[in-house]
């Protein structure tokens, strides 16, 4: 993952000066998965690409780079916009602690637990691990990353490790791995799973709210995984339909929901909103692009516009009712057009949240500082109520951080006093 441009080759560096792993109470990154476990005879590592009965939790150990190097070196090189060599991220081990008992379906014969066919209840251990990390963190926030289709278990763990790194190891990060299949021909199968097994993610969100000290919970959903995220939120909305927005926020503490390259039917999203979905998180951000070829193929298959596609083109103008709804819901919902963001069109234009240093900057600063689109320097398009990236986006973002981070304000003032351009 390229360094987000907001960090300006170290001008803003969220990474602690001392090695963070010395204070993190577990050596790795937390995960939750409803995949079935792999055995030594299976081709997959750790977990299968098949559905499991329960949500299993544990810890994955991560190694950065091809060899061991000092934390100071890692701290400096990861902030560089241009690196002289690659520093791959890999999993060196996975330890499953057991299951979240609350995820056990009521139709399963619980006597199976006595015969060892289901893992032991690790709910308490998982909650204690989260709380131990929150206790040593400056932010009592929990971050959850939900991956897209066609990937194995390792993918969300590694992506989560990179995102947590660029958040400075603040809060507790959980990689959520649902049972997708690493095959382009598994699109329908994975779509069924991402929609039908949202209960597992909903149970995880309820568990964090009830059993941990998290003050805020943030969910980052990608591609087909956004179906799972939104279905889980709709379920929560229906469960709490008689409660006020303030009560729901106090109970669930879900702050930001960020949807990237969402492969959900726009009309279905509208139906979820009708069920009260936007009452569950404090703010929902939907990143859209007109250069996303993967969503273009999905649109071809389904004959429906996808949520992560930008309005435009013949037969896809924004309807007046939709336009007014986005204006009325602007305090809860924001659409953000990344089409003009740096490197947003790399590859098939679908993985921009990692490949675009502007898109990653915007997402990370939303999570790190809680800045709104206007505060981050985004501008409203003239033709529709959708935010876009201006040419001087990074400078605008620095000015916004200057207002909320005294340490960065001092660094930026010193840099400007030296009459050196921040982009040089």
UniProtKB/TrEMBL annotation:
Coiled-coil spans are: none
Q: Which InterPro entries match?
A: AB_hydrolase_fold (IPR029058), DUF900_hydrolase (IPR010297)
Print the keywords alphabetically: Hydrolase
| Top-level lineage group | Bacteria
Output the Pfam families linked to this UniProt entry: DUF900
Does Nucleus count among this protein's keywords?
no
Q: Name one GO molecular function term.
A: hydrolase activity
Write down what this protein is called. Answer: Alpha/beta hydrolase
